[in-house]
From TrEMBL, chains A, B:
This is DUF664 domain-containing protein. Keywords: Metal-binding. GO terms for molecular function: metal ion binding. A divalent metal cation binds at H44, H126, H130. It comes from the Bacteria. It holds the Pfam family DinB. SUPFAM superfamilies: DinB/YfiT-like putative metalloenzymes (SSF109854).
Length: 156, 156
């Protein structure tokens, strides 16, 4: 399980590096698809990963809006801050946690329950999916996107 | 491991269903990013999944071009055909296969070696990443994309 998280964290860092060469107005520009922008997508990935892990740990989730973090530095700092909590939980993952159940009540009052293993995979797929959107916007900007390859990253 | 493959296969089927409501010229149209088109992306996902699994099984990889499969029906049929071989290998996956080594020589003569667990995760991430690109093109067409959610798919 950890390997795919490590992949996501590497790819995220590569996108942060990619962002350094792009004018901030392009990072903030409204685009078609996903949550509608490059930096907003990176914020959203970080928010969703952290909020679900908080859910699994019984901690309150993160609820602040993107507007409060709308610069590359703020998004990178937020990622680093949350990583201090996300990494240990993910690194301590064991097979017997797969079938544990999280029950929650959503803002609309709906009661939901998910298996821990289901949520961990949801978080993994969520980030990879949104990164795919960044790759299209990168080409629209005339820039080569970060490689999405899992191989050749020293993960094995 | 199997769960994320099952997720990809469900999402892929949802995209095939999504394609049925889209004119074929839109499915074939050249677009910015990825391999440059909706149907070509679905073909590429199927090709890459099958070719890597063939590699792990010691079978010859698939080498035909997209041009030979440039209709929704042909791509769906190819997916179903390859699935007969991909599914059993994936379903029979065990922990002790993680560190097995595949060695290969690439077309440029480079000798490469990868762990089996590395390749399986590469295949998973590859499909999710390209599906993210489809979601952008879907919005460009004014259509709601297939949900990328792993939760609520009955996978756990």
């Amino acid at each position: 399980m950890l390997k795919l998280f490590e992949y996501n964290w590497q790819v995220r860092q590569d996108w942060f590096d990619w962002c350094r060469d792009v004018p901030e107005e392009e990072l903030l520009k409204k685009r078609t698809g996903g949550v509608g922008g490059i930096l907003h997508t990176l914020f959203h990935i970080i928010d969703v990963e952290y909020s679900w892990i908080c859910g699994l740990e019984g901690k309150p989730e993160f609820k602040e809006p993107f507007d409060a973090y709308a610069s590359l530095k703020q998004v990178m700092d937020l990622s680093a801050e949350f990583h201090k909590e996300v990494r240990p939980f993910t690194a301590a993952w064991t097979e017997d946690m797969e079938q544990k159940v999280l029950t929650d009540t959503w803002p609309n009052g709906e009661k939901v329950s998910f298996k821990y293993g289901e949520i961990m995979r949801h978080v993994i797929a969520h980030e990879i999916h949104h990164i795919g959107q960044l790759s299209v916007w990168s080409r629209e900007l005339g820039k080569v996107p970060v490689t999405a390859n899992f191989i050749r990253r020293g993960l094995f």
